[in-house]
Amino acid sequence: MIVIENVEKRFGETTVLKRINLNISEGEVVTILGSSGSGKSTLIRCINGLEALSGGSITVDGNDVSTKAGLAAARRRSATVFQLFNLYPHMTALENITLAPINVLKKPRAEAEARARELMKLVGLADLATAYPQRLSGGQRQRVGICRALAMDPRYLLLDEVTSALDPEMTGEVLDILAELARGGTTMLFVTHEVEFARRISSRIVFLEQGELIVDMPTERFFAEDGGFAVPRIRQFLTKMKKD
């Protein structure tokens, strides 16, 4: 379980996260919604240790991410897919996927490569193992990013606006992969603006507003007229997203 307790994050005088409390259990797909600047991506970066906490605590299966040993253990249990791919340009798709399993998990190269090829086949990239990132489309690069995360055999998959840099067709490709992972029971914490997709795959919806968690509801309840939609700020947000 990922346990987030009273988490605060400040950048100078600006408070970006304000006493966030949230739990994510294995098997859940929890989507974080909110307008730009609400703190969604910062929360993901705090979970994976890319941002230090200003207050509170985060544990991943009991491992405190604010300590060196705890963060190392947490990162062995979780993996992050970023919005801008972050692939190494001098490495092939296969090499990008196998780098961490070989160097962090100490898997034999043959085992890591076999798993990478299995994952690439799963996402429709079986013929592109030797391709470099510059030869791949945005959707293909993002699918390599997903494979790279899954190659670590994570209990938790953290997804930070993974479709924001993609065109509509590529977005559909990536969302189809994520929907399949959700159906297969992969635990995900998903930051997105894709409201209808969130509605389709999520167990719960969390809504952040100016760094505060104002709603944490089962998905069906979140979209109900007498549930999340009854909250004026959420109604405003959902109405605007529908128009867009």
TrEMBL record:
InterPro entries, alphabetized: AAA+_ATPase, ABC_ATPase_HisP-typ, ABC_transporter-like_ATP-bd, ABC_transporter-like_CS, MetN_ABC_transporter-like, P-loop_NTPase
GO CC term (a single one): plasma membrane
Keyword Transport: yes
Keyword Transmembrane helix attached: no
Domain ABC transporter, residue spans: 2-235
Gene Ontology MF terms in the entry: ABC-type amino acid transporter activity; ATP binding; ATP hydrolysis activity
Top-level lineage group: Bacteria
Keywords for the protein's UniProt record, in alphabetical order: Amino-acid transport, ATP-binding, Cell membrane, Membrane, Nucleotide-binding, Transport
Subcellular location: Cell membrane
Bilayer topology term: Peripheral membrane protein
SMART domains the record matches: AAA (SM00382)
Main location: membrane
Similarity comment text for this entry: Belongs to the ABC transporter superfamily.
Protein name per its UniProtKB record: Amino acid ABC transporter ATP-binding protein, PAAT family
Biological source species: Nitratireductor aquibiodomus
Top-level taxonomy: Bacteria, Pseudomonadati, Pseudomonadota, Alphaproteobacteria, Hyphomicrobiales
